[in-house]
Design brief:
Blueprint (H helix, E strand, L loop, with lengths): L3 E7 L3 H18 L4 E8 L7 H14 L4 E5 L3 E5 L9 E2 L3 E3 L16 E5 H6 L13 H12 L4 E6 L4 E8 L4 E5 L8 E9 L12 E7 L4 E6 L4 E6 L5 E5 L8 E8 L4 E6 L2 E7 L13 E4 L14 E11 L4 H9 L6 H4 L7 E6 L4 E4 L8 E4 L1 E3 L2 E6 L3 E6 L1 E2 L3 E4 L7 E2 L2 E2 L2 H16 L15 E8 L2 E7 L1
Helix pairs in contact: 4-7
Length: about 475
C-alpha cells in the first residue's frame, strides 16, 4: 500500500486554491486513493517566488508524514482525466489541456513541470530541486538535468542526424561568416538547404535572448536561427513588415539538416528538419518582401554590419544551398539520407540543374546556377575568420526525457510569466535561464550541493484537517 503526498507551491491565488482543494478531494476519492496528504506550501515572505524550494519543503513534510511517493502539482491545473497511482519511475502527468476561455498552454518534449510524480527514493537520489531558481522558470529544466546526471529511469528518444566525419568550417560566434552575392530573386518558388551543428548555448548576459543565425538576409531579417529555448525558427517578413515564421519543438543540441520551402505565389513556407516536416504556414494577401535591396546573403550571421543583434552563429556549418523550385517531402528525405560527406550536388544528380547557389565546406566555393541554366559560374565565397575543425558524429543522437503518463488537466487562467511578447516580465527569469545553460555547458547540475540537503527555511502550520495541511514558510 502506497501513500501519496500532493505538494502544491502557492502564493496569493485564493480563488484558485479554493477550487483546487474542492476538486482534488473529489478527484482522489473517485480514483479510490484514500491514503494521501495534500500539502499546500505557502510562501509567506516578500522574496521572489521560489517554486523549487517550496516543493522541496513540501517533500520533506510529505516524507515526515509517511508518504512514499509524491506528486508536485501546480494550483492552476485541475485533473480531468489522469492517473495518480504509484510509479517507480519519474513521470510527467500534465500533457493535455482544456482551455480556460482563450487561455491555453503548449508544452515541449522536455517539459517536466506542471504535474510530476516521483517516488521518495528517486527524489532523494537527485537531492530534490535546486533552491536557486527564484522567480519564474527553469527549475524544472534543472530537475531533468539532475535526473539525467544520476541516471534515473528516463525514456530514451533517438534522433536520426547527419553523420559527419570530416573537417568542417567552425564559426566562432563573434566575427566568423561567409557572404554570397544576393543574386537570387525570390518571386518564384525556391528552397534553402543547410547542414550544421550548433555549439551548446552560451548566454550573453547583456542580451534579452540568445539567437544565432545559420544564414540570413538583413533588413527585417529573413533568417534561420537557433536560440536559448532550444528551438529552431525560420522567419521572413512581408511588405507591411509583419513577420511570418515557423518554430520547431524543443530539439537537443545535435547535427541538423534544415530545408525551407518558400513560395511567394502560394504565400506559403514549409520547414523540415532532418527529413521530417516541422510545419507549414500560409499568410494572407500581403506580398512577401523580396529583399532585392540587400547585396548579400550571409552564412553564419544575420547581419555582420549592424551594431547590435548581429546573431553570429557558433558551431559548424557544413553546407548551404538555394534551389529553384520547392523540394518535395520525398526529395527532402533523399537529401537527408545522402552521404553528408559528399557534395549534395554530386549525390543528387536528378536535381543538379536546380541549384541556384551552393556553398560546400570542402571547397569553400559557391556555385551560382541561375534558374534552369545548367552552366555553372564558379566564384570564391568571401569568408571571414573561418577555422576548419574535425567533426565526427554518429548517425543517431540519443536523448533522455521524462516518461509521460497521459493526463488531461483543466487550466485556470492566470497572468503569464517568463518570456512573452518579446521581453521578460521579470529579468530574474532571464537570470534563471543563464544559470541553467551554464550548468548544461559544464555538464553538471551541482545536485550534491544544492537541494534538499541545503533547503533552509522556517515554517508554521497554518491549517490542518483530515488529509490536508497548509504551511506558511519563510524562505
Amino acid at each position: 500500500m502506497h501513500k501519496l503526498g500532493i505538494i502544491v507551491p502557492y502564493r496569493n491565488r485564493e480563488k484558485q486554491l479554493e477550487l483546487f482543494n474542492d476538486y482534488i478531494t473529489r478527484f482522489l476519492n473517485k480514483q479510490g486513493i484514500v491514503d494521501y496528504t495534500v500539502i499546500v506550501v505557502n510562501q509567506a515572505d516578500r522574496k521572489k517566488f521560489n517554486r523549487g524550494k517550496l516543493l522541496n519543503i513540501g517533500f520533506l513534510e510529505a516524507k515526515a508524514r509517511g508518504c512514499d511517493y509524491v506528486i508536485f502539482h501546480d494550483v492552476d491545473m485541475l485533473p480531468w482525466e489522469a492517473d495518480f497511482t504509484y510509479s517507480d519511475r519519474p513521470l510527467q502527468i500534465a500533457n493535455r489541456f482544456i482551455k480556460d476561455g482563450e487561455f491555453n498552454r503548449t508544452i515541449q518534449r522536455n517539459y517536466f513541470g506542471g504535474v510530476t510524480l516521483f517516488s521518495v527514493k528517486d527524489f532523494e537520489k537527485i537531492n530534490g530541486y535546486s533552491n536557486k531558481y527564484k522567480g519564474w522558470g527553469f527549475e524544472d529544466d534543472d530537475l531533468l538535468l539532475r535526473c539525467r546526471e544520476v541516471n534515473l529511469d528516463l525514456e530514451t528518444e533517438s534522433y536520426r542526424v547527419p553523420n559527419l566525419d570530416r573537417k568542417v568550417p567552425y564559426f566562432n560566434g563573434k566575427n566568423s561568416y561567409v557572404k554570397i552575392k544576393n543574386d537570387f530573386p525570390t518571386i518564384r518558388p525556391y528552397s534553402y538547404v543547410a547542414t550544421f551543428i550548433p555549439d551548446p548555448i552560451d548566454c550573453n548576459p547583456s542580451e534579452i535572448t540568445d539567437e544565432y543565425a545559420v544564414f540570413g538576409i538583413p533588413g527585417e531579417d529573413l533568417n534561420l536561427s537557433y536560440n536559448s529555448f532550444s528551438t529552431y525558427k525560420f522567419e521572413l517578413f512581408l511588405n507591411n513588415k509583419v513577420p511570418v515564421s515557423i518554430t520547431s519543438d524543443y530539439l537537443p543540441n545535435m547535427p541538423i539538416q534544415a530545408v525551407i520551402n518558400v513560395n511567394a505565389r502560394l504565400k506559403r513556407i514549409q520547414f523540415f528538419i532532418n527529413g521530417k516536416e516541422v510545419g507549414t504556414k500560409y499568410w494572407g494577401d500581403v506580398g512577401m518582401k523580396q529583399y532585392t535591396d540587400q547585396p548579400y546573403i550571409y552564412i553564419g550571421v544575420a547581419d555582420p554590419n549592424r551594431q547590435t543583434k548581429q546573431k553570429f552563429f557558433k558551431g559548424y556549418i557544413h553546407n548551404f544551398g538555394i534551389l529553384h523550385g520547392e523540394l518535395s517531402l520525398e526529395e527532402v528525405r533523399k537529401l537527408f539520407f545522402s552521404d553528408p560527406n559528399v557534395s549534395l550536388i554530386d549525390s543528387n544528380p536528378e536535381i543538379k540543374d536546380r541549384w541556384r547557389a551552393y556553398y560546400d565546406s570542402s571547397t569553400m566555393t559557391v556555385l551560382n546556377n541561375f534558374w534552369l541554366d545548367s552552366s555553372y559560374k564558379k566564384d570564391i565565397a568571401e569568408n571571414f575568420n573561418i577555422e576548419f575543425k574535425e567533426v565526427k558524429s554518429n548517425k543517431v543522437n540519443k536523448v533522455k526525457f521524462p516518461y509521460r503518463r497521459q493526463g488531461t488537466f483543466k487550466l485556470l487562467k492566470h497572468d503569464e510569466a517568463g518570456y512573452t511578447d518579446g521581453f521578460w516580465k521579470d529579468w530574474g527569469s532571464r537570470e534563471n535561464q543563464m544559470r541553467y545553460w551554464r550548468k548544461v555547458i559544464d555538464n553538471k547540475s551541482d545536485y550534491e550541493n544544492d537541494g534538499l540537503s541545503t533547503c533552509l527555511f522556517r515554517s508554521s502550520l497554518a491549517e490542518e484537517r483530515d488529509n490536508y495541511i497548509k504551511l506558511n514558510v519563510i524562505t
